[in-house]
Design goal:
The complex is a heterodimer. Chain A has a 6-stranded mixed sheet with strand order 2-3-1-4-5-6, with helices on both faces. Chain A is globular, with a radius of gyration of 16 Å. Chain A is α/β, with parallel strands linked by helices. In chain A, helix 1 (about 20-30) crosses helix 7, helix 5 (about 135-140) packs across helix 6 (about 145-155) and helix 5 crosses helix 8. In chain A, helix 2 (about 80-85) links the parallel strand 4 and strand 5 (about 90-100). Chain A has a single domain (about 1-105, about 115-190), classed as 3-Layer(aba) Sandwich (Pyruvate-ferredoxin Oxidoreductase, domain 3). Chain A contains 8 helices and 6 strands. By secondary structure, chain B is α/β, with parallel strands linked by helices. Chain B is built from 20 helices and 22 strands. Chain B has a 7-stranded mixed sheet with strand order 3-2-4-5-7-6-12. A 5-stranded parallel sheet of chain B has the order 14-15-16-18-17, sandwiched between helices. In chain B, strands 9-11-10-13 form a 4-stranded mixed sheet, with helices on both faces. In chain B, helix 2 (about 35-40) links the parallel strand 2 and strand 3 (about 45-50). The longest helix of chain B has 21 residues, at about 195-215. The chains are: A alpha/beta, B alpha/beta. Strand 2 (about 35-40) of chain A pairs antiparallel with strand 8 (about 165-170) of chain B, so a sheet runs across the interface.
């Protein structure tokens, strides 16, 4: 059974909109007829801490958290957080990462350096690695705030959920006035 | 219709479908969103109480009046509500009453990981434990029926992974055929004086025996026979991990974890070769199964600490782990106070004054983190003031002056005000700083009795905190602007010197408050990089909007820079700059 479950991890920094992205993903999976479970930690993590959201879908899902080392896709909103969560991914898994660096407190205060060579480190371990400049594509789509939707579009191509369900999920979860921009951003990410 | 709901959303939905009329709570992770969802149902009167004890008392009143009532709290909230809870089991209910206790194994956002199941046994109250959102809704709904049928409050135990996990739920309709609440006197049942309570106690004990006997037929517990070489008794989120990791094992899935279904357990045990109990935290089920004389393996293989995960369960059963990419060493990313947070200046001053700071529960507990590093104790809600009094009772006259309690507005009203009464009553020389940011911030901006709004967003009277302190008897009450570093430090220093009780109240709101006219961004600040000497003074407040940009030549040199998207214009960093190179952008 677990072989048929898709395990997706969304990681980044509190405040980046990871929870909304994982809601849209879960909604799309449900509309496509799958059983879905999702888990994440609220609370302290909202104050700029690391955030990990787990989404699993398939015929029947038990655990709401992805078993360690069984992630199919790591969907990173920030580079250091993407690297931190690589151990959650199965060997040969897929990494879709936003090309963005957000400095943690120790780096802001000049006590540590933001680690270098992260992109190369991910590449060396995971051949299926897509680096997306979410901010730039979002700006091209008409709204820099739609970066998450761009990334979601890029991830969507690697999942067995038809485009119509993604668009329906966006319609449900995104405010009406931002819908067109987000649909455009989604398609641009999907074509990336 | 199916929807993806979190456990908390599903509990709210279950209460709605059960015809619940009143929902009351004090916010606390991971329980907070339950009441933030009951407000979607206008049929339910939803409100924040100042603390969990009051919340439960409101629910009890609603139940005694004949309406169904929901009360929710985090695990440690049950400690506060324990007083009414333990006698509520004696009185029983009129309208059904469900008390949700949301545990936090692994302490994702808590100060301990107490196991609320012990309260069910201690208070003699049945407890249900759902294992996904569908069961959250169903068990809440059925909990109200069980409560009325057995004339007892019913506890529903959630955990972080259940409350904040999402899964599919089939929605139902709200029941409409409940009797209308009206006053009905029944002192023999509801006035717990010794004479009445002596009559009630045996009924409570008999009730639990009856429930245990009926448990096999109730819709909560379920035997799933598969391979009988391994039999596992489990409940809640652990059931999901067992099904994930040991899909062929037979399971006795308990939906009611107290009282236990003894006959069902014996029957299950007789059908399997080796019996295990898989549960997080305490050996609550295991000890009771052992007391029945049934050999069982439990805490020998599952930790008493932290939460279970599929990987940890694999380890417990000696199963192979997935090949894992080795973790890379990365700088940590702990939570931090927000840019512009009004707490920052206070902790900066306390650090400079070398105060001994008794702390409390809220965002300001992050004052513990470097570079502010200005909190010395944190135990529970409202504890800071009492602890400050206690410290001053034992240290030298000179050290007494160093003792300062810090507490937020919501926490002060929760249980801190009692500590202040004691402080005045017994003339403690400690200083109290009430960090009044006009909201319950840590749990995600909930209103409280001093914020001026109800949970339903209706304007209401706001407790006047300075007047309250005055009424308690504090003679020295000072209001400070915590964004003015010099004033803040001077006032704190003066009050620390004073050998009498004194209270300092800060007057700037939380930057996350979205309500109009409460928090307003100032002009955005910038560093004049030409003139920045790289002295690092502005880094000492740990503002996430200020970044150190190293010169990149391998030296320690560099310059500070302000992120215009994060800066709120609080002005604190400008006051720290001795070279006057930080200013608002024209």
């Amino acid at each position: 059974m677990s072989g048929q479950i898709k395990n997706i991890l969304l990681v980044g920094v509190g405040g980046q909109g990871i929870l909304l992205a994982s809601e849209i993903l879960s909604e799309a999976a449900m509309l496509a007829g799958f059983d879905v479970k999702k888990s994440e930690i609220h609370g302290m993590s909202q104050r700029g801490g690391s955030v990990v959201s787990h989404v699993r879908y398939g015929a029947e899902v038990f655990s709401p958290i992805v078993p360690e080392g069984e992630g199919d896709i790591l969907f990173g909103f920030e580079l250091m957080e993407t690297c931190r969560s690589l151990p959650l991914l199965k060997p040969g898994g897929t990494v879709v990462a936003n090309d963005l660096q957000i400095s943690p407190p120790s780096v802001l205060m000049g006590q540590e350096l933001y680690p270098g060579g992260l992109v190369e480190r991910i590449k060396a371990q995971f051949a299926d690695f897509l680096l997306v400049d979410g901010q730039k594509i979002a700006a091209d789509s008409g709204n820099v705030k739609a970066a998450n939707t761009v990334l979601l579009g890029a991830v969507s191509k690697r999942l067995s959920i038809a485009e119509e369900y993604w668009l329906k999920a966006l319609e449900k979860m995104v405010p009406a006035k931002a819908l067109d921009v987000n649909k455009r951003a989604f398609r641009m990410g999907r074509e990336f | 219709m199916k929807e993806i709901l979190s456990g908390n959303e599903a509990i709210a939905r279950g209460a709605y479908e059960a015809g619940c009329l009143v929902a009351c709570a004090y916010p606390g992770t991971p329980s907070t969103e339950i009441l933030e969802n009951t407000i979607k149902y206008t049929e339910i009167d939803s409100s924040w109480a100042p603390n969990e004890k009051v919340a439960l008392e409101v629910a009890i009143g609603a139940s005694f009046g004949g309406g169904r009532a929901l009360c929710t709290m985090k695990h440690v909230g049950v400690n506060v509500a324990a007083d009414p809870l333990f006698t509520l089991s004696y009185t029983g209910v009129r309208g059904g009453l469900v008390l949700v206790a949301a545990d936090d194994p692994e302490m994702h956002s808590s100060q301990n990981e107490q196991d609320s199941r012990n309260y069910a046994r201690f208070a003699k109250v049945p407890m249900l434990e759902p294992s996904d959102s569908r069961e959250c809704k169903e068990f809440t709904r059925l909990g109200f029926e069980l409560s009325e049928q057995y004339d007892t409050p019913v506890m529903l135990r959630s955990s972080t992974r259940i409350s904040h996990g999402k899964s599919l739920v089939e929605l139902g309709e709200r029941v409409t055929d409940l009797p209308l609440p009206k006053l009905e006197k029944n002192p023999a049942k509801l006035v717990m004086l010794p004479g009445n309570a002596r009559v009630r106690h045996p009924l409570v004990e008999q009730n639990l025996i009856n429930l245990s006997k009926a448990a096999a037929a109730l819709p909560f517990n379920r035997v799933e026979l598969r391979d009988t070489s391994i039999g596992i008794i489990t409940a809640g989120i652990c059931y999901q991990y067992v099904r994930e990791v040991l899909p062929n094992a037979s399971t006795l899935k308990l939906g009611m974890v107290y009282p236990l279904p003894h006959e069902l357990i014996r029957e299950f045990a007789s059908k399997v070769d080796t019996l295990y109990v898989i549960e997080e935290l305490d050996p609550f089920i295991e000890d009771q199964v052992k007391a029945m004389g049934i050999p069982v393996i439990g805490k020998e293989i599952i930790s008493l600490c932290g939460e279970l995960t599929p990987g940890r369960l694999r380890t417990a059963f000696g199963l192979p782990q997935a090949a894992v990419t080795p973790a890379e060493k990365m700088p940590g990313r702990p939570p931090n106070m927000c840019p512009g947070c009004p707490h920052r200046g206070v902790f900066f001053a306390l650090k400079q004054l070398r105060a001994y700071v008794t702390g409390d529960i809220g965002c300001y507990t992050l004052g513990f983190m470097p570079p502010l590093s200005a909190m010395d104790t944190c135990v529970c809600m409202g504890a800071s003031i009492g602890m400050a009094t206690g410290v001053t009772k034992v240290v030298s006259a000179e050290e007494k002056k160093k003792v300062v309690a810090v507490i937020g507005d919501s926490t002060f009203l929760h249980t801190g005000v009692n500590g202040l009464m004691d402080m005045v009553y017994n003339n403690s020389p400690a200083t109290v700083i009430i960090l009044d940011n006009n909201i319950t911030a840590m749990t995600g901006r909930q209103d409280n009795p001093a914020s001026g709004f109800t949970l339903m967003d209706d304007p209401t009277h706001a407790v006047n905190i300075p007047l309250l302190c005055k009424a308690v008897g504090v003679k020295h009450i000072r209001i400070v602007n915590p964004l003015d570093l010099e004033e803040t430090k001077r006032v704190i220093a003066e009050e620390m010197e004073r050998p009498e009780p004194s209270v300092i109240i800060t007057n700037k709101p939380c930057v996350l408050i979205k309500r109009e006219d409460v928090f307003q961004k100032g002009p955005i600040y910038a560093v004049d990089e030409e003139r920045c000497t790289g002295c690092r003074a502005c880094l000492k407040i740990g503002c996430p909007a200020i970044e150190w940009r190293a010169a990149g030549d391998g030296s320690r040199r560099g310059k500070a820079s302000i992120d215009p998207l994060l800066c709120t214009g609080c002005d604190v960093c400008r006051q720290l700059c001795k070279f006057d190179v930080i200013g608002s952008k024209p």
